[in-house]
Known about the structure:
The complex is a heterodimer of chains A (about 450) and B (about 1000). With about 450 residues, chain A is mainly β. Chain A has helices at about 1-20, 295-305, 370-375, 405-410, 425-430; strands spanning about 25-35, 40, 45-50, 55-60, 65-70, 75-85, 90-105, 110-115, 115-120, 125-130, 135, 140, 145-150, 160, 165-170, 195-205, 210, 215-220, 220, 240-245, 255-260, 265-270, 285-290, 310, 320-325, 330-335, 355-360, 365-370, 430.
Amino acid sequence: MKRLVYLFSAFAAVALIAGCEPKIVAVPIQIQLMSENAPLAVEGISVSLEDAAATNVFTQLTDASGIATFTVNPGSYIASAVYKAVENGKRVAYNGSNTNILVVEQPEAPFPIDLAKVESQQLVIKELYSTGCPKNEGTGSYSNDAYVIVYNNSEFEADATDLVFGFLAPYNGHATNKFYGADNTLIYANEDWIPAAGAIWSFTSSVKIPAYSQIVVAIFGAIDHTATVTASVNLSNPAYYWMSNSGITAYTNAKYAASDAIPNSHYLTAFPFNKGNAWVLSNSAPAFFIGNMSKSENERICNDTANFDLTNGTTDTGWSVKFPKASVVGAIEVYSAANIEKSNARFPADINTGYAAITNNKGYTLYRNVDKEATEALPENEGKIVYGYAGGTEDVNGSTDPSGIDAEASIANGAHIIYAQTNDSGKDFHQRKTASLKK
Amino acid sequence: MSGHKILLSILLAILCPVFVWGQSRTVSGTVTDKATGEPVEFATVVLEASEQWAVVDAKGRFTIPGVSVTKSVLTVACLGYVTYSAEIIITKDIPNFKVQLAQDNLTLENAVVTAKENENSATTSRTIDKTALEHVQMMNVSDISSLLPGGATQSNVLTSEKQFNIRAGSGESGNSSFGTAVEVDGVRLSNNASYADPSKGVKGVSTNNIASANVESVEVISGVPGVEYGDMGSGVVKINTKKGKTPWQLTMSTSPKTKQLSASKGFGLGSTGEGASLGVLNASLEYTRSISEQMSPYTSYLRRQLSLTYSNTLSSGALQTKPLRLSLGVTGNLGGLDDSADPDKLTGTFLTQRDNSLRANFTANWLLSLPWITNLELNASAVYSDKLSRENKNYHASVSQTAMHATGLGYYMSAPYSAGGDNPAVMIPAGTWYNVMAVDDRPLATKVTLKANWARNFGSVSNKVKIGSDWSTDYNFGVGAYSEDPQSAPTYREYRYCDNPVMQNLAAYIEDNFMVPVGRGRINVIAGVRNDNTIIKGSAYGVTSSLSPRFNAKYTVFDSKGRRDALFNSLSIRGSWGVAVKQPSFSILYPVPGYLDINVFTSTASADNVVYRAYYVHPRAIQYNADLRWQRNHQAEFGIDTDIAGNKVSLVAFYNKTIGAYQLMSNYERFAYAYTSTADVQGLPIPAGDRVYTLDPASGIVTVGDRTGKMSSLNAPYTTRKQFISTTFEDNQDNPLERYGLEWVVEFKEIRPIHTSIRVDGNFYSYRGLYSDMEAYCPTTIAGSDGKPFKYIGYYYGGDQMSNGRETRSIHNNVTLITRIPKVRMIISMKLEASLLNYSRALSQRPEGERSYVIADRTDVLGFDRSKSIYDGDTFAVLFPDYYVSYDDPNPVPFLEKYQWAKTNDPALYADLSKLVVTSNYLYIFKKDYISPYFSANFSVTKEIGDLASISFYANNFFNNMGQVYSTKTGEYESVYRYIPRFYYGLTVRFKF
């Protein structure tokens, strides 16, 4: 009995001592997401709040005002938020933190997090193949099998309906470039346009590209080219698209052909403004770009002579259409490996710097390098990335993907690839031995 | 002689030729070799005044009976000898006139290795004889152009065609080389039956297949020729081959790109039992091979030529006093271009172009010496050429292709060749294949000439009348383009040249040539007229007549006779004027028709890459032009020839005007057709793999059937497209082309101590051509602002190019040092060719002023400034059409006014009309272009080794000038090789035995 008395007394003493400590009361706090000095009023963004000891991490979603509300004990906290989205066809990432959140009592105003906004294109040129391959006879080049792959470099579905395709004058990087002024700079470097040549292609129906997926656009022949040229590619696939000459008065060249498999909803159309029976994409050194423009606007700018530039020629054999720089989505400056020293850039620096070199008539393509860090950072890629890429070339002026990631094998393995986007063709692309479509 | 006496003499000469016939005499004599004393058989003796002649017999004797003139120049000519010439007085019979002929070799003090002025000619005429030809070692007879005043040496390869082009430059309008007449032994080489693409201008006959080793001399008449020369524009080139009894001659020539072997001999055929000569047979064989590149010596031109000429003079029996000289020649050439051995070409592909020819000629010259006729001459010739070209090409197609052979208007769907029938739209399966396409081109030109000469003296007045007629024909036996494998032939249309009618020309001419002594000199007047009647039976062109009057006069103030110590040894002035008419070529009269094949439907490709294509075929046969006139050339020249203290000076000023130059024109016509898009057909419910396509040939409607029979056939939707189609036709340029210039030759007296003479020759040449026809242009290959085919045509004064003409001026001067060392039988020449002025400028002119306007900014074409001149310097320019028409409204609308209105009121029209506005690409388009002077030096040496052999060596551009020339137009330097040949050299060895 005596023992029970002692034990009770001890409990009572402890309870008394404990009851003498100050009472700790959790308080509500708000975190306001900010971007460019204005509230980022987006609902559902996950905001993390981590205490100074890094022992507790709280997570809340923002409301419609971009505010996340927490109830925490007073103390020091670090708040951070990441938000990715597609705005106006561009991939955007908001990222930021506030390391100076000191909670003493319920604050009167929300704590801000200034989020830095990083933009990148959602759609990228993944691969361009226009330089041909050897014919079966061993001599002569075959280049009717040109294609371009457009890739959705994001985790969001892309609307590519207004995607357009074009190239700049002059046709070849090593050709005489009349756009270079006396000071040896491009006369349109500081203008708001670039000189498109030939025609600009638009889709004729709605085109959606799922996250981390691609579309293939055949440039001349959407057929199985391997039937006559074994080194070529099979572009007869119902999922593929075709730059169709159907309905285009001038484009009568017999290299335009599409297989039965291509639905007419996958036909592209163009509004030629230069003389010629085909779209004369260079088979050695084009300056190729993709842009964002409605089909009707494409038609307008290609027919409006007031929008023509006459530097490259004053008649329909040479004049150019001014394509707005702001509408450019992606670009690749290609130089012929044999003519690098004679070549001049056609894209101004605010669109692209550097060049990708290619040797023609070997079946080589220009393939975009993998953004290793970004790709490896995707949690869903764990265990799916294939390394040891050997698809590059070792020729003189050859190149390979410095990431070492075999993108196609990784994709086949279920990985999501994020490709590099530095807007430097020399860093973004490498010369690939074999077309990625050639299985 | 007073003026009225001269006039009287002229009247006498023209009106009373038949009724005056004086006493006749006989001139006889012998002709022997000066060195050996041997008779020179077959030498020709001619009395120039009476045009009577004789041929020396085996004993060296000649006789010319019935001579009525009292004074004449007697010439004696024979192959291998220097022509003898002397004035003789014939007041009585001359029984034993002795002539000793000197052998023509380098032991002579006055061997000539340049072009020699024909001093007796009343117009500009020059002769290049054997010594000069051997010295320059020509491989192509056109190479002798470099010996004419101011002539520049060109590369001597034969792999590209060369033509003569007298008193004209390259790149000029007016088809000047087509108008240069070329004759070999009197046989006219005609390019009239050519079907070459007329859009590139009509070229003259190629001289590549004329054997150069067998040429004895070349005469170039740059001035106004006699009326016996028709079908020409400017210039006559007469090539004379070797004739007469000669020893064997073997020649071997080599240069880095050309090798030549030749052998020739003139065989005496002996005599009959009665002593009459059986004549002489000349045989010549030549093998020449030329390559285009030393680094790839596989594309070659080959010339293998055999020439046989038989000549004889019948002067026995009834012909004893009226000898008849006969000549019959046959020349065959096998050769052409061949690149089949070129390893750089795709295996199996090749191009061969035959240049075979057969020339035959017959001449009978009958010396009648009658009171009303002196000579009667009959010439007949035929030139047949085989210019078959064959080209084997490699083809590849990833889907089936369609080769069009349809010639009728309408719609055609492709079908496999195996489907049989006369399939005009052949489907060629996908894959790789080869096909040989050939063009069979076999022109034949014939000519028969009959002419009579009548020569008489009336006192001191010498008069010659020439009356003649010729009949020439041009025809082509070729069948045009064909394929050696119709299954895989590319698109082409059969167009049989041989189905076109013969072009005949019947001409008559009369010419009087009289010489009147005046003071210490004489006046020589040649006046004549030629009437040509071109007859094309079975053609809308029918009969075309033309008149060509020609006039030459030469006043020899005094000549060298009796003026040995005078400062001025001789002086003569001359003037010429004449008209020449050039018949059209077949490429002008009946050019190869073009076809517009419009792809109106293309199916999708099946699993085996079969694509059906439908075409709307619109023939674009070049229209007959009722207004087409034969191109005419008006020539005038004035010359002075003098000898001052042994220095010979010749100056000639000329003016040529080409009227109605042949010119390809274009126009447009409206048409509409049904178009079916692939996309529309692909949207039809019948599965693509089951579709069967048929086409209504009249309406162009495509019907899609279901091969499984499960679904009904469907007519594919179509749209009607309207557009313009261009048509072309031959016409004459409205504006004449003008050329004028000055030619000079100064031959300085030899500097005896060093056996060296200096010759300076050169020319100033000016050309101005302005195109003034109203020509249409429609950019048919681009769409209008509505996305449909462009529907406007602009009509431009002088065409739709920024410039409508060009002017050039040039001065070329050559200085030649010639050292003759007769003792060692050697001659050395060094020629410095200099271009002292090379000027050109593009023009844009119309009668009221400049045809284009200055703009400051090419994007602001309506901001033109008429107060400024396009010729003032660096400036952009704009050209507007005078008016335009639209597809829907054929009424012409003044362009500029409407264009200015549309800028603010109708943006779509403004956009469309903007596509008819022409702006200059460069700031310097109308800037004067002076090319800085450039030079090239040639060196040649010929050495005879006794009578047995001779050797010649040349080095052209031997200083190896690799410099640059400056262009004031572009402000840039360019390689001089555009104007002078690269360093090259050659060697020739000749044996004579």
